[in-house]
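hiii so um. not sure if this is the right channel but i have a protein structure encoded as tokens and i wanna go backwards to a sequence. like what aa goes where. can anyone help
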């Protein structure tokens, strides 16, 4: 069996998060486990060939603070994905823009405090070309 990395998020409102990730990013809920108090103890969604898991927690990230990690979602159309996410309630942090590494990317913050990079591959570049372009950013 090959290894696979999945994402597990803590959110303040499980029901709302499941609805948001479905509307904003096209995730499909697989199941949820509801605790005696009605909170989402565990839920799983299919998103972009991986499993997005979440649970309702009391220490979810606060909106506005920088997180020590980001989520990168590969999409077919960065502009359309950004419009969809913002329409569903995400906050636009960075407009879609072509990047030196061959992707077009935007950054949105979901209502639960997580930063999502929406990334569309536009060019297939080798590591030497990416490094050359990266160096050129600092040369100008």
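sure thing!! here u go:
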């Amino acid at each position: 069996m090959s290894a696979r990395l999945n994402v597990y998020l803590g959110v303040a409102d499980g029901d709302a998060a499941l609805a948001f990730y479905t509307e904003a990013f096209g995730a499909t809920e697989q199941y949820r486990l509801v605790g005696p108090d009605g909170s989402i103890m565990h839920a799983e969604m299919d998103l972009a060939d991986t499993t997005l898991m979440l649970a309702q927690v009391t220490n979810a990230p606060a909106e506005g603070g920088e997180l020590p990690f980001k989520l990168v979602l590969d999409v077919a159309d960065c502009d359309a994905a950004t419009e969809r996410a913002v329409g569903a309630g995400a906050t636009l942090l960075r407009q879609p823009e072509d990047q030196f590494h061959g992707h077009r990317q935007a950054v949105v913050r979901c209502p639960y405090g997580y930063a999502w990079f929406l990334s569309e591959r536009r060019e297939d570049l080798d590591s030497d070309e990416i490094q050359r372009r990266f160096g050129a950013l600092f040369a100008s």
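oh and The beta strands are 7-11, 28-34, 40-47, 50-56, 71-74, 91-98, 103-109, 115-121.
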